[in-house]
Batch of 3 targets.
Target 1
Amino acid sequence: MAERSSLSATGLSGARLSGAGVAHALRLEGVSRHFGALVALDAVDLEVTAGERRAVLGSNGAGKTTLFNAITGDFPPTAGRIQFFGEDVTSLPVHERIRRGLRRTYQHSLLFRGLSVLDNLYLAVRGVSRGRYSFRRPRRDDAALRSARELVHLVHLDHVAGTVVANLAYGQQRQLEIGMALAGAPRMVLFDEPAAGLSARERRELIEILRSLPRHIGYIIIEHDLDVALRVVDRVTMMHNGRIFKEGTPGEIENDPQVQQIYLGGGHG
Amino acid sequence: MASISDDRARAAAPGAAVERAPLRLPKGWAYLPLALVLLTFPLYANGFWIVQIGAYSMILGIIALSLMFLAGYGGMVSLAQMSVAGCAAYFFAILGHSSAEAISLGWSAWLTLPLSLLIATAFATMIGLLASRTAGIYTIMITLAIAVAFFYFTRQNYDLFNGFNGFAQVEPPHFFGLDWRQPLPFFYLTLVVSALCYAAVVYLRRSTFGLTVQALRDNQRRMRALGYHVTGHQVAAYAASGFMAALGGLLLVWLNTRISPGTIGVGPVIDILIIAVLGGLRHPIGPFVGALAFVLLDNFAIDLIDRERFNTVIGLCFLAVVLFSPDGLLGLWEEARAALTRERRPRD
Ligand SMILES: Nc1ncnc2c1ncn2[C@@H]1O[C@H](COP(=O)(O)OP(=O)(O)O)[C@@H](O)[C@H]1O
Ligand SMILES: [Mg+2]
């Protein structure tokens, strides 16, 4: 199948070094998404370099999740172009984008509730490798199964690896949600409010997980909690009413009066 | 590292926990008595019990098992499984021997057998392609529509399907020098195919393919976000379960020695759904339990009430099971066991 090449080197070669020597992992040009008359995303331009860690902040309904849905293809944009590592992926179906190294988590966990934690992560690894249609059971030393076990460990779920997801605590489901996005060889991960609803301790663990990610994995994180967001990113993008209105380093954003007014003053939650 | 506190364990999804926990049935040696009963059944039963009850139950069980695999694991309720079975039966008659000599090609069974399985599986694949565009109730609707269309097509097409009459004198091949129409060989043949199908489903559940099928049931959007071509996996599931239904269809035509539109009409199509739900969709033994109950009712309800009321009886049984045990007869078994365990350990 086609993913063999795509997982290795596609897009990482020439196209990656476009612009002024900057490697663009993701480039959005005039991306819009309409839901009927509602403009959830309004001509958004966005550039994220390879390995960059970015936060997207904005009040509820600002269009952050819609931005993710447009990037992954869950809800393809109604206008605009999306490039992923130099390749135009605007018209590709979701699974093709994923096979090119894009990953995401969902704001409201979408997990295989009837399967165990290990099965969930095994399927996550299998989804971006060969043998998806295999009628065989994975052998004990199967490479995908081994990576799945490593992921279980990475998201601190070893003690519940065999537990059916429906029986997991909320925080554990959120952690599994993150593990699902780290399977295979991600090049960029989109985290949609991973810390929402977590306890202080679970938040610390989340930060630990995010910081322990290999440096070449870039990510975009949507996070309401500035404490979490600003500690794990290089740059911040501010959204409001489907538009991007500010971009900067965490320090710049924290001290920006306009941001404080709209984001911190405006009700969110 | 013991990381996450369990304080919100139950808050996560109240009720959902019980919903899909795997059904716990006895393991390993506990099945020895059942295996012995099945293997020695022809020794103490007469021809009617061996074939009309025993073999027929297993055949319906195989076809219902193909539905259980699709619906129980994959969340795709297809009403066209009987049509796929019928398709295999029809093509075995069309390509091989039957009373309709003008149509039947008279090819060797070594050719007709794999070909009819292949054609039926292709039919199931096509059904999968159509049905994968739908979900839930619409899957039921479209597969029912296909089943009904196939029924009318076979009834009105005389060139290939011999219309209303269908095909008679369709006989199992005489391989290994045995007459497989005799009750004993046929019973064991059916038993072996049933056991193989059962074992296949048990094995497949933990295979990569089986896990993807269960993932289809749980969350297709997430599957896409993991890199899966969801339609591809749906169609594969229809094809695999169609192959199993086709096996059942061949056994069915050998048992009846005939195939006609009546075998694949709306009644039989719905019966398969009833059998699968009656037995329970969560474990591959369910369809066989359901089929046995169905066949017993079918044969002996007549002693209690008149023939015409059979549908009322099966309907009421169906209703009772669905109302009192969402997991079918298997669920009743589990509840009984749970009750017994509770009695033994009152302070649990
Ligand atoms: N699938 C959808 N159908 C209709 N409207 C939607 C859909 N998804 C999002 N919206 C609307 O788009 C706007 C942006 O939503 P969203 O991207 O979820 O915001 P955020 O994630 O920033 O809170 C909201 O007004 C929301 O109601
Ligand atoms: Mg959101």
Target 2
Amino acid sequence: MRNLFKIAIRNLLRYKRRTLMTASLITIGVVFVLAYISIAGSFKNMMVAQITDSSLGHLQVHRKGYMAAVESLPLNMNLKPRPYKILEDTLKSQPEVEAYSPRIRFGGMFSNFVETTSIRLNGVYPDREFKTTPLLPTRIIKGEKHLNRGEILVPELLSVGMGVKPGDAIVIVTTNKDGSVNGKQFKVSGILESAQGPGGRDGYINFEDAMEVLRMEEVEVSEVAIRIKDFSQESAFTKKLIGLLGKELNQKGKPIFDVHSWEKLSPFYNIAQMIDVMSIFVKVMLVAIVLISIMNVMIMAVYERVREIGTIAAIGTLPKKILAMFVIEGFSLGVLGVVIGNLIGLSIIFVLNLSGITFDFGRQTGLILRATIAPLDVVIISGIVILISVLASLQPAWKASRMEPIKALRHV
Amino acid sequence: MSLVIAKDITKNYQIGEVVIPAIRGLSFEIEPAAFVSFIGPSGSGKTTLLNLVGCLDKPTDGHLTVAGADVSTFTQKKGAGFRGEHIGFIFQDFNLLPVLTVYENIEYPLIMVQNVPAPERRERIQRLLDAVGMLDQKDKYPDQISGGQKQRVAIARALVTHPKLVLADEPTANLDSKTAHTVIDLMKKMKNELKTTFIFSTHDTKIVGEAEIIYVLEDGQLVSRNVQGGNNNA
Ligand SMILES: Nc1ncnc2c1ncn2[C@@H]1O[C@H](COP(=O)(O)OP(=O)(O)OP(=O)(O)O)[C@@H](O)[C@H]1O
Ligand SMILES: [Mg+2]
């Protein structure tokens, strides 16, 4: 084996320029893929985090049918105390759950005593909401980073349009589910920057204030946003929760709850998926580059060395040894490209992180790009390239091993 | 028993519709430790015959036995194994592997063809390097030595596996006549020392005199058999 490698490597060194060119082609491919995957992957993760941590949460649970009517924020589709109790008990016993936050969502009129406009509001328990969507406090661009009873966080667009600022008094008027109108005065505690995704342009008030303005006699919940400890377990936990809550049926035998992961709730999921598809596409390109360049070089190598192949076959080298000799040559070439490619690619990622490149997403500006790549990704990409190198040399190597010695020896 | 037994062997080449008879009914026997030459004009069938005896090709007809094995039964793999075990080859163009040193070229069959343990390998190569007078050149690459030196290395490579038979198709055709003589002398010396059978072809009448048995080929047929000392049994 050592000797097969010795011969393969000497043969690679024999055509230094060609070896170098092929190896650099593979190197460039590997570097490109590593850079692409790390940047695109980090971009995606950051965007997802922005969306889930700003307003959405990782998962949401509603009463069955609520999401179908969500545009009108129906008040007659809330979870009543009994089902909400079931839901709370379930969530409390799940070790994966970091925090959850019940919300009352409703629409109403927003008046600054001069003008009136419509507004969508979330009634929340601020400490629980802040734990479930930890980026929410950072979205408060003016005013206080809290939300006491009688206070309201006003979306930025509305504050601009209506000319309100922290400290101002405003009135919220709304219709409850029975159709009676009620109003309540609030103090603007802060202005809330818009966030991507549904609910990103909603205002926030206290849960109890929401109950009061809606004249609710008992606790009703429109949705429960959930944050889990390990986001990578999100889809597993979603499945688990669907399984657990799916067992809960109403009197008519229909399920009570509806569980949605962030993917179902945010249109950004499609972009995230596109990024994943692009990553696969880029990997396929890499495979093609490696396949073509290694195959090309190995076909050349076999053609140039027909007489040598004839010689070693004549003196008794078994076909499988000849096959191995050329496959190992392709393998070594692939390894060379991968090693250099990894070194350069990882250095580029390192430098990218040092230089702290920033970018904007939606209305969020100055996000710092953290290019990261999982060691497993590096291993998989390297493995693919080496595997393809071996596969690409198989055909030429097989041809070499099948050569008839006399024909090969006569070759000029 | 004879090392090579050929009975009425023929070899035809087929190019499209045309059949070219290269060997037409040859019968001969070669004894162990013989020093045999096939001589004949260009196209007389020397290379074809040596390829048959070397188990690189199969006769179209007739029986050919080499070292007790019927050549016509060989598959590609079996043929390679048999050659690696019993036959050494010396080529007109030397055919050393350019990426290996002199030492490594001689070592090649011991590693890649046979499986000889390292200490014995070293000893055999050392002895042969000495015998062919290439000890001081052992770390050079083929493109750093002369043609005569290359052929001496090739002789060492052919002998290192202790074959029963060494075949050399025009081993001196690319050498000047002085070097050609030293190469043939070396082959003879090795034959005497190791009792290996040497069969070589040539159309050079000056060196053919070195052979102990000379077969003359013409048009794929044997026209004479000369044993050194003047016997003519054709
Ligand atoms: N592969 C082949 N296909 C067709 N015809 C061939 C082939 N090899 C040899 N021949 C023919 O067979 C005959 C014998 O050729 P061979 O090469 O054995 O002669 P030779 O004695 O070795 O000649 P030279 O001294 O030129 O090497 C010639 O007529 C040649 O043209
Ligand atoms: Mg010839």
Target 3
Amino acid sequence: MIDARGLVKCYGDKVAVDDLTFEVKPGIVTGFLGPNGSGKSTTMRMIIGLDAPTKGSVTVNGRAYADHPAPLHEVGALLEARAVHTGRSARNHLMVLAATTGIPKRRVDDLIDLVGLTDVASKRVGGFSLGMGQRLGIASALLGDPATLILDEPVNGLDPEGILWIRNLLRSLAHEGRTIFVSSHLMSEMALTADHLIVIGRGRLIADVSVADFTRQASSDLVNVRTPEAERLRALLVGNTVHVTATSPGRLEVIGLTSDEIGDIAQANSIAIHELVPHQASLEEAFMELTRDSVEYHTTVRASA
Amino acid sequence: MSTIELLSPIAIPMMSADESAKLRVTQNRVVRSEWMKMRTLRSSWLTLGLAIASMAGIGIIISWSTANDWANMRPRQKARFNPLADPLSGLFLAQLAIGVLGVLLIAGEYSTGMIKASIGAVPRRLPVLWAKLLVFTSVTLATMLPAALITFFVSQKLLSAQHIQTTWSSPDVARSVIGVGLYLTVVAALGIGLGAIVRNVAGAIAVLVGILLVLPVIASALPQTWGDRVNKWLPSNAGQALMSLGSDNTTLSPWRGFAVFCGYAAATMVVAAVLLKRRDA
Ligand SMILES: Nc1ncnc2c1ncn2[C@@H]1O[C@H](COP(=O)(O)OP(=O)(O)OP(=O)(O)O)[C@@H](O)[C@H]1O
Ligand SMILES: [Mg+2]
């Protein structure tokens, strides 16, 4: 359980985090989303006390992080920037962290195996690839068997297998009742991993919403349908709140119904469906729509679907 | 979401309740961690090796070449030779190696980002600083005091071939030789403190060299009356009073000087502690 109240962080004139109040609950994965520079990493650093809030406070399980007698058992964190001495081996890095709180060597070895670094554990971290560094960061976050995990863009640099593995790992950890707080820029990734979303822009809270609600709103937008009986289906679907356009012969674009509903109607009327595709980019678009006004660094070319 | 539940869960190694109940951060554990940190970096061994080699190597080479050359040396050179101070002159290079290592041990964590992991594990922060101080000053004393003793005795053995040696029981000798170990131990503390304050390896080394070597040179350019009053209070001059032979009013008395040097190091550590506690990591 993370409880942030009125968090403010200023760096000189720059307000990085602006009056953020939110809760992160145990037993689920909470995604932390926002465009570049919106204050995600800053907020996470404040939770573990690396940066002091200018105003407000944040507690983990009822106490400021620094007030826990066994901090690594309370919170495991993977930060944005690599927090490793490049001259030390992966195993020694974990060993020195483990030593501060009496974690046995056996656990260090278990975690090295878990993240798949067994073969390179005695190599200097300086030579690690981005993904290997990220795996080491995950091992150090898990070191103290923490009740709360804070991960800043954990999939950054991971290959598809690694991304799937992380997704799976986070789900498993949440399932054990832990609090999981994970940042990302990718709405689509969060839709697959998270149960709840906290969205910020320019340091302010924009949305605190369940993924189910967010996706329902977003994906109800548009569904592409391909069917040999386009005209008949179109007649069946159109209604007050439903808008159907024929994009090309045999193809329809439906707004206002979910793909489930369209499929059911087609089935009930014995219409063959060859393709039924909820508009894939809609989540990302919904996210961009949500944060449009608070994007700090606009690109000049508009992203297209 | 249902698609995810289908994936097989990952078995995360858990700790038994018994084990996790014992996971407190204690100063002792942080000391152990810092000791491991120091041992597991190649730069520690290299720099410490350099300090020992400077201390012993320079002194022994000076003694050996003096003993060999003695017959050919001019009277003025002979008069200038001191069988205690000259063999200990490796100190001037050794102090840089020790100071640099002190800086590396903490500023190296800032340059690599390791400090975030260190402070994340010990969020009260100060135990990390005290542990570094304890570990590194202990290592320095435990290596440099023996290095000074070995340098002294080997040198006297070499010099005895020309009967120009001194003995342990002569005036100033024991204090000077042991003083080398003590002086370097305080330099170690100074390095840690400066590293923590400046947080940048190159910057902290520059400040260290400035304090130990450049400051005395600048101060020696002061007018005599001023200089005599100011010079002896400079950190390195005060500290090196411990190795002085006889005393005059241009140096502090040995133990007073050493106490002043300790005072500088302590003040540096206090500033380092306050800043470590206050600043964002
Ligand atoms: N140490 C610092 N000093 C000055 N400004 C900072 C510092 N850290 C962050 N900022 C500023 O605060 C703002 C928030 O940065 P932060 O890194 O928290 O964003 P983010 O959401 O993590 O971005 P990204 O998605 O790119 O990782 C940015 O404008 C950044 O420039
Ligand atoms: Mg970030």
